[in-house]
């Protein structure tokens, strides 16, 4: 078991690879505004290599924005973000290179609509990593099998169910061999019966030791796969704790209030 | 006597002139329009300003005036000895590129933002994102308006006839000088334009159809 100060491993975690305590992502006093709205307020967050951090909080609290600043889809006004010891560069080739190391999975899948499933998973490898087509296809097929959609390789995204599309999106991100995966409400756009197939893929990823930041309302996933829960409200991190501790004994009133609303319905 | 049959060589010469002038100008306008559209949606402010100025100037200037600038001003200060055909292609191509740019830009805006965000998240550069992800998806929406622009270009090419370019419309003047009935000349010339514009319509309908099933 890890005794790292940033990430005490919870008792019920299924994880086999304990987080090392070696910081991979560090956010230091990050602030961001959308016009007059102060959407991220003095955010400090460290994610250790191999750690799974679940971000929860009411709608509009800034969870997506937080997630998107980590690969600089949103710029920040002040503070700093480093990934693997390197500060996020400004827009350009260097940033593109860094983004290739950070996988992102969106609520709305965002698969390339004009490309087949296979092409979706090979495109980044061939165009960004400059891997040969044969090798990229081999990797893509392995990954598609791993997420359980190997049989759909030649279809277009619109021909797949939401759950299948999201699993392809995960495979597309994994094909870049990322150091870190960001998930922004990956199951919120799915019909209930498809949520589990996506969560199961994510659980397996967590067991394999992938570093993950997951924005989700799936408390079951947070309990079983997270090392740490980060609770956000109104642009601030209000509370951080191991999942068991957070769900059984939240400290802040905001968290108590939030949990009572989502657990009783 | 029949205007068309008696002067078939003249008509054919004009017809080919119009087709070539239209085709070359169309290619120029599509290439320029795409580049200027890329400027207009790029994250680099000077490029965006260049794109906006290009579109504003060319779209708001009467084409005849552009022709006059191309034919009377450009050769004197920039390119002495350049052919009328090249000048006409430049004027038509640049003018139409402003409209092509705006059609493409509206097409780009019709592609959901998430597509570009997913591409950037994979580490694609701006130009890869545009080339591989956004423009191919924008193409389908922009095919019909660009088809209309190419038809307008065909008809606008008639202005070149007044500037010493041998094309369809210019033959009308020569024939009426010889003494043919002007109405009859016009009917034949109009029919010749219809042949070209119908061909363009058919081509774009085919493209639209092809791209629709490719999804
Ligand atoms: N691009 C944007 N422009 C302006 N306001 C935005 C933008 N994106 C998000 N916001 C606002 O920022 C706040 C936080 O949004 P978000 O990070 O999406 O919250 P969450 O994901 O926690 O629901 C919301 O009030 C939202 O309306
Ligand atoms: Mg959100």
From TrEMBL, chain A:
Key words, A-Z: Amino-acid transport, ATP-binding, Cell membrane, Membrane, Nucleotide-binding, Transport
Protein location: Cell membrane
Membrane topology according to the record: Peripheral membrane protein
Entry superkingdom: Bacteria
Pfam family, one: ABC_tran
A GO molecular-function descriptor: ATP binding
Domain ABC transporter: 25-259
Region entry Disordered, spans: 1-21
Signal peptide start-end: none
InterPro entries referenced in this protein's UniProt entry, alphabetically: AAA+_ATPase, ABC_ATPase_HisP-typ, ABC_transporter-like_ATP-bd, ABC_transporter-like_CS, MetN_ABC_transporter-like, P-loop_NTPase
Similarity annotation: Belongs to the ABC transporter superfamily.
Protein name (Swiss-Prot/TrEMBL): Amino acid ABC transporter ATP-binding protein
Automatic annotation (TrEMBL), chain B:
Transmembrane regions listed in the UniProt entry: 15-42, 185-207
Protein topology in the membrane: Multi-pass membrane protein
Keyword line: Amino-acid transport, Cell membrane, Membrane, Transmembrane, Transmembrane helix, Transport
Subcellular location: Cell membrane
Residue ranges of domain ABC transmembrane type-1 in the record: 15-204
Domain of life from the UniProt record: Bacteria
Family annotation (Pfam families): BPD_transp_1
InterPro entries named in the record: AA_ABC_transptr_permease_3TM, ArtM/GltK/GlnP/TcyL/YhdX-like, MetI-like, MetI-like_sf
Family that this chain belongs to: Belongs to the binding-protein-dependent transport system permease family. HisMQ subfamily.
PANTHER family: AMINO-ACID ABC TRANSPORTER PERMEASE PROTEIN YHDX-RELATED, MEMBRANE COMPONENT OF AMINO ACID ABC TRANSPORTER
Name the record gives this protein: Amino acid ABC transporter permease
Organism in which the protein naturally occurs: Streptantibioticus ferralitis
């Amino acid at each position: 078991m890890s005794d790292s100060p940033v990430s005490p491993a919870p008792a019920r975690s299924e994880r086999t690879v304990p987080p090392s305590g070696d910081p991979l992502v560090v956010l230091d006093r990050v602030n961001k505004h959308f016009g007059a709205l102060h959407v991220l307020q003095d955010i400090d967050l460290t994610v250790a290599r191999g750690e799974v951090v679940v971000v929860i909080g009411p709608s509009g609290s800034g969870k997506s924005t937080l997630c998107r600043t980590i690969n600089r889809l949103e710029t920040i006004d002040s503070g700093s973000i480093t990934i693997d010891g390197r500060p996020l560069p400004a827009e350009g080739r260097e940033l593109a290179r860094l983004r290739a190391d950070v996988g992102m999975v969106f609520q709305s899948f965002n698969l390339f609509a004009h490309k087949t499933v296979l092409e979706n998973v090979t495109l980044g490898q061939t165009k960004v990593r400059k891997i040969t087509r044969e090798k990229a296809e081999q990797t893509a097929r392995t990954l598609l099998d791993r997420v359980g959609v190997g049989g759909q390789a030649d279809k277009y995204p619109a021909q797949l169910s939401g759950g299948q599309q999201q699993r392809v999106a995960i495979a597309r991100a994994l094909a870049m061999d990322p150091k870190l995966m960001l998930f922004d409400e990956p199951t919120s756009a799915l019909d209930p019966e498809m949520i589990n197939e996506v969560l199961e893929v994510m659980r397996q990823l967590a067991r394999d030791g992938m570093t993950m930041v997951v924005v989700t309302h799936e408390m079951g996933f947070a309990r079983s796969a997270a090392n740490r829960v980060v609770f956000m409200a109104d642009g601030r991190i209000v509370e951080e704790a191991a999942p068991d501790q957070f769900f059984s004994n939240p400290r802040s009133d905001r968290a108590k209030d939030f949990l009572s609303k989502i657990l009783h319905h | 006597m029949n205007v068309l049959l008696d002067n078939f060589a003249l008509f054919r010469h004009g017809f080919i002139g119009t087709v070539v002038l239209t085709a070359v100008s169309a290619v120029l306008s599509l290439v320029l329009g795409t580049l200027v559209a890329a400027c207009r949606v790029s994250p680099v402010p000077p490029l965006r300003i260049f794109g906006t100025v290009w579109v504003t100037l060319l779209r708001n200037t009467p084409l005849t005036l552009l022709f006059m600038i191309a034919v009377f001003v450009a050769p004197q200060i920039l390119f002495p000895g350049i052919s009328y055909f090249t000048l006409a292609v430049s004027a038509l191509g640049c003018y139409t590129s402003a409209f092509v740019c705006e059609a493409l830009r509206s097409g780009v805006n019709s592609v959901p933002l998430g597509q570009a965000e997913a591409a950037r998240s994979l580490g694609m550069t701006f130009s890869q994102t545009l080339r591989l992800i956004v423009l191919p998806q924008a193409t389908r929406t922009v095919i019909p308006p660009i088809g209309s622009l190419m038809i307008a270009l065909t008809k606008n090419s008639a202005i070149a006839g007044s500037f010493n370019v041998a094309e369809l419309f210019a033959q009308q003047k020569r024939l009426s000088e010889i003494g043919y009935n002007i109405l009859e000349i016009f009917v034949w010339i109009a029919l010749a334009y219809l042949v070209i514009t119908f061909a363009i319509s058919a081509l774009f309908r085919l493209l639209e159809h092809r791209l629709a099933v490719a999804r």
